[in-house]
Every structure is written in C-alpha cells, then in structure tokens.
C-alpha cells in the first residue's frame, strides 16, 4: 500500500497528494469517467459541470477543502474541476439515480462500552476491483492547529474517506442509493469534515441540518482516553433533509447499504434493488456474528473483527464480498480493502483486497 505523509497548509497538502500520488489520481479519473458514462450516460464534461454546483456550499463549509483540492489538481497536472468531480462522485453516480441500480457495497461494524472496554470500528469497502490500484494511505499533518492529524485510506484525488484522527475519532462509511440529492456538501467532503473534528459533538455538527448533498451512513466512534471505557460509537444516516441516529445503545452497531431510518425514508426513496438479497443479509449476518461472540462470552478484539470481515456466508454476496460474475455488469462489486480501527489504541489495521485471502498490516507514520 502506498503511504503519503502530507504536511503543511491546505494547498501544500493537496500539492503533495497530487504529485506523489499522481498515478493513483489519474487511475481514479479513468475509472470514474468510464463509470459515469456507463451508468448514467454522463460524459466527463457534464460530470465536471454537475460537480461545480457544489462549490458555493463547500466554500461556506470549509474553504480549506477548496484549497486542498486546488493543490491536488496542481500537483497531478489536471484541472480543479477534475478533482472536484472525484470528490463529488457519489452525488454524480449514486444520488438521484433512476436507472438500473448499482451500489457501493460495504459492511461496517462497531463495538464500544458497555459491551467492551475498547472502542473498535471497522468495515469492508466493496466497489470496483480496479480501484485497488488507486488506493492511497494518507497521513495528514495540517498546519491549522484547530484540526487534528489524520490517518485515512482513500482513492487517489479524493480528500475525504475512511480513517481516524489524533483525537481518537474515526469514521466508517456506507453509501446509500436514493432518488434525491442537493447542491450542498458532497458526502466524501463530509467524511473529511468529521475527521477534521476533535469531538463527537463537533463531528455531528458537520453533518446535520441538511449540510450533506446525498444520503449515506456515517458510523462515527471516539475514544477520548484517560482509562478504559471512555469511548462511544454512533451511527448516523445523513441526507439533504437532515440526519437520524440508527442502531442501539448496547455497545454494538452494524450498517450495510440500505436505509434504516424511518425519518430519512419520509423524504427519500431507497433505490437499492439488492437491499433484501444482499445488503440486508450482510447486515443480519454481521449482527449474528456479534451476538454469537457475546453469547459465548468471547472477548471482542481486533482479531475478532478480522474473522467477521472475512466471513463468507452467502458468498459471493458475503461480508467478504466476491465479484459475482452471474450478476449484471453494474452489480459486480468486490471487497477492495478491509479496515479495522482500534480507537482506544489509536491503531489502524488494513488489508488491501479481500480479508479472506489477504493479511492485515498495521498502518504507521
């Protein structure tokens, strides 16, 4: 896995990302140009124009995100609009979708007190297998003292995704396919807003009140240290119409790729045609694995998460997701990476590819 340490003000961080990760950025641009046209018959010029509709909202949200994307473009030798389109890719490809549906996969899980003394979150990210070649692990050390340091796994050119920060706050992500979007902040930049936060309260303030342009699930955890049991995880479904907390308060959370909130469903229609035969089975299976561990009295650790994320029940559409060659082309997703974040220990474990076939390595900078 390619690791980049990015240091400085926002523009410089972006330039380092773009220049050192140029091959990955160009790979992402190639992937999404084909994807946008193949799924929605949108050419790249049109995709850039759609992305530009979000600029005013991003400037109001955090001007440094604009500066960082400008830096990525400069470093990679592409246009700002190209990088903006990558960061708005969910809004372009997934939101307001009316055709044959397709989906980011992903199964996200969390445990925290009172179930465990440590707060651990993790997920498989299921998407187009070719995006393995675009993956970057970023260690972001921003000169803005109001923002924490970040360790994040992302696709080349995208400045927000899955990771954790020096305040012990981390986020997992599940895409949701719905029929509406807005011109507010793209959800991947919302993920960056969460990672730029020092507390759960600050993170939630970045995603509420309809600030997000599309629907998604943000599973956010934090361990503030100062002894065992000082952590919490919450799962929010975000949307252009506001947010709602889903899941219980018993120390365990699971989310996949279908809407759970009745509040969100009042304004949005779930367009995932595979929610019953794929997403719901993965969610129920993850809950079953959690309950089995609890009933057996097993201590839930990072190793437990490795087993859960490697689970092959209902393969190919299992938690460890395989490409289903019998499915329509738009449905052929697979696990691209698997991530476990022990927020109590400020520790990230990452497996590139399917965890049932690979190994997890600790990410250090």
From TrEMBL:
<dbReference type="InterPro" id="IPR047801">
    <property type="entry name" value="Peptidase_C45"/>
</dbReference>
<feature type="domain" description="Peptidase C45 hydrolase">
    <location>
        <begin position="118"/>
        <end position="356"/>
    </location>
</feature>
<protein>
    <recommendedName>
        <fullName>Peptidase C45 hydrolase domain-containing protein</fullName>
    </recommendedName>
</protein>
<dbReference type="InterPro" id="IPR047794">
    <property type="entry name" value="C45_proenzyme-like"/>
</dbReference>
<dbReference type="InterPro" id="IPR005079">
    <property type="entry name" value="Peptidase_C45_hydrolase"/>
</dbReference>
<dbReference type="Pfam" id="PF03417">
    <property type="entry name" value="AAT"/>
</dbReference>
């Amino acid at each position: 896995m390619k690791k980049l340490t990015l240091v400085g003000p926002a523009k410089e961080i972006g330039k380092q990302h773009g220049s050192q990760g140029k091959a990955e950025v160009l790979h992402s641009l190639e992937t999404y140009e084909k994807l946008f046209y193949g799924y929605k018959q949108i050419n790249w010029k049109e995709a850039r124009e759609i992305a530009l509709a979000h600029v005013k909202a991003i400037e109001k949200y955090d001007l440094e995100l604009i500066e960082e994307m400008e830096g990525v473009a400069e470093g990679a030798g592409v246009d700002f609009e190209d990088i903006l389109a990558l960061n708005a890719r969910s809004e372009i490809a997934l939101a307001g979708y009316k055709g044959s549906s397709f989906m980011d996969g992903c199964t996200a899980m969390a445990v925290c007190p009172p179930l465990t003394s440590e707060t651990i979150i993790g997920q498989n990210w299921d998407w187009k297998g070719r995006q393995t070649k675009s993956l970057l692990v970023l260690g972001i050390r921003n000169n803005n003292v109001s923002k924490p340091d970040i360790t994040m796994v992302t696709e080349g050119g995208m400045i927000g995704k899955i990771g954790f920060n020096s305040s012990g706050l981390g986020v997992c992500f599940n895409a949701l396919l719905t029929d509406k979007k807005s011109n507010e902040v793209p959800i991947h930049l919302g993920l960056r807003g969460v990672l730029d936060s020092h507390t759960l309260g600050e993170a939630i303030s970045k995603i509420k009140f309809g600030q997000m342009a599309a629907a998604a699930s943000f599973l956010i955890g934090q361990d503030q240290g100062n002894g065992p049991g000082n952590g919490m995880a919450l799962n929010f479904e975000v949307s252009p119409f506001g947010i709602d907390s889903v899941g219980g308060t018993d120390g365990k959370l699971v989310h996949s790729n279908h809407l759970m909130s009745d509040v969100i469903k009042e304004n949005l229609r779930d367009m995932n045609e595979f929610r019953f035969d794929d997403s719901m089975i993965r969610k129920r299976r993850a809950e079953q694995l959690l309950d089995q561990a609890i009933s057996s009295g097993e201590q839930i650790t990072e190793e437990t998460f490795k087993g859960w994320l490697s689970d092959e029940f209902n393969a190919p559409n299992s938690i460890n997701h395989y490409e289903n060659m019998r499915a329509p082309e738009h449905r052929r997703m697979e696990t691209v990476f698997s991530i476990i974040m022990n927020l109590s220990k400020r520790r990230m474990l990452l497996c590139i590819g399917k965890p049932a076939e690979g190994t997890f390595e600790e990410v250090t900078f």
